[in-house]
Design brief:
Blueprint: H1 12-19, E1 24-25, E2 27-33, E3 36-42, E4 45-50, E5 53-60, H2 64-72, E6 74-79, H3 85-92, E7 107-109, E8 115-117, E9 122-127, E10 130-134, E11 137-149, E12 158-160, E13 163-165
Antiparallel strand pairs: 1-12, 2-3, 2-6, 4-5, 5-11, 6-9, 7-8, 9-11, 10-11, 12-13
Length: 168
């Protein structure tokens, strides 16, 4: 295969196909918008620093999730376990109704009131200090102000090649 010409534009479809070859853990980000919980599936998140503990999530910039997180100034990131794969679809469906997103699920709350999904591997409560535009997305960055362990020995929910996977 010939190397890509670094002076020309990268084909977006080819980029999408190749970037789907990244194996990524799947999580959900939750925040409150008025009296309602807003929860969205995310696979673009990163622990940026251990000193001080700092994390980042990337949300589509024009989404109500990005708007709600930035407006609230905080969110909770719950790392999902493999047996929670159904939540990936539940919270990853564009245009899902805002009311009743957590109906039927057991949750606890961070000090800021954001939902922690029970049964996840771990959770991190983050306060947004910086918001940066990057292409079509909004990078929301901030310190971890609270965290907790769920089921650390459970298998993680993983996405690879655009599909839900399990680790072998």
């Amino acid at each position: 295969m010939a190397p890509l010409d670094s002076t020309g534009p990268v084909d977006q479809d080819e980029y999408r196909r190749l970037s789907d070859l990244l194996a990524v853990g799947v999580a959900v980000a939750s925040t409150r918008q008025g009296p309602h919980d807003l929860v969205v599936t995310v696979d673009s998140y990163l622990d940026l620093s251990y000193d001080p503990p700092t994390m980042l999530i990337a949300l589509y910039g024009m989404s109500r999730a990005a708007e709600a997180v930035e407006e609230a100034g905080h969110f909770c990131l719950t790392l999902l376990a493999a047996d929670q794969q159904a939540l990936v679809d539940r919270f990853g469906t564009p245009g899902a109704p805002l009311q009743g997103m957590l109906s039927g699920l057991e949750v606890t709350r961070t000090e800021d009131g954001d939902a922690i999904l029970t049964g996840g591997l771990a959770h991190f409560a983050i306060r947004v200090d910086h918001a940066v535009d990057a292409a079509t997305h909004r990078l929301l960055i901030g310190p971890v102000v609270e965290m907790g362990e769920g089921r650390p020995t459970a298998e993680p929910a993983v996405r690879f090649a655009g599909e839900k996977r399990t680790l072998l």
